[in-house]
Amino acid sequence: MTVHSFQEHFDSKIDREVSIEPRDWMPDDYRKTLIRQISQHAHSEIIGMLPEGNWITRAPSLRRKAVLLAKVQDEAGHGLYLYSAAETLGITRDQMYDQLHSGKAKYSSIFNYPTLSWADMGAIGWLVDGAAIMNQVPLCRTSYGPYARAMVRVCKEESFHQRQGFEIMLSLSRGTEAQRKMAQEAFDRWWWPSLMMFGPPDAESPNTEQSVRWRIKRFTNDELRQKFVDVTTEQAKVLGLEMPDKDIKWNEERGHYDFGKIDWNEFWNVVKGNGPCNKQRIDARRNAWENGQWVRDAALAHAAKRKARTGETKAA
Ligand SMILES: [Fe+2]
Ligand SMILES: [Fe+2]
């Protein structure tokens, strides 16, 4: 086949919603876009373990500790499925780690904010995992097969994460005055950064159009953000918490909530590395990588010894 007909074959698969698999021909830019998106997503999962890991030893009860521990371990699993999916596109895990540790690769900026109180575990589960679900459910139908399949399991686990967060918020908001206040403060701190998780406005998101055409993305950033605002505003009523945005108002005509202006300067500032915890997060990952060197060395040495030994038995 000529490149031209390869392209036609690819396009027709996309049009017919037939998934693209690792051995299929694909345009270079499609491959590059996916490597960027999937590896960023994988990095976000493992960096995302850090703010919550901070509270495992201080969880208020054994039950809360067990749940949080399970949740943080799930995020490690998500990272691993996604690194594996990215590897099918021809990048190695070492290359991806290197991009993360050198600061070349991005990850979700939300994880550059600190977790100051126990209520942050509630707010993160409710809002951050909630926003992740909005972003990720459409990815279960994304055009690249390995990515779509990884997302099916990820989304099941994310919905548990969202519920555990909401349950923490519910307990706190029905608790003492001090607990209710702690929940409200966490809501106030995480609300705007959660809205930023959907990425820049459509008008300033140069990759969106192509990604929608390739059916990598199914909805634009603004569409997903609006959906999140609509759902979360209703959930806040159940919690009896006040919306951190005073401009939230139901718009009968649009059938959606209108909301206030997002501070995009803050967003870009955090993306550029100047958020409250950027340095701390990357340092933690780098240290984990360096401190784990002996484990990788030992595993390789063990594998080599075993190979030598089975080689000997076979020879005998
Ligand atoms: Fe996750
Ligand atoms: Fe999660």
From TrEMBL:
Extent of the signal sequence: none
Highest taxon of source: Bacteria
Transmembrane segments annotated in the record for this chain: none
Gene3D superfamilies tied to this protein: 1.20.1260.10
InterPro entries xref list: Aromatic_CoA_ox/epox, Ferritin-like, Ferritin-like_SF, PaaA, PaaA_PaaC
The protein, known as: 1,2-phenylacetyl-CoA epoxidase subunit A
Gene name tied to this protein: paaA
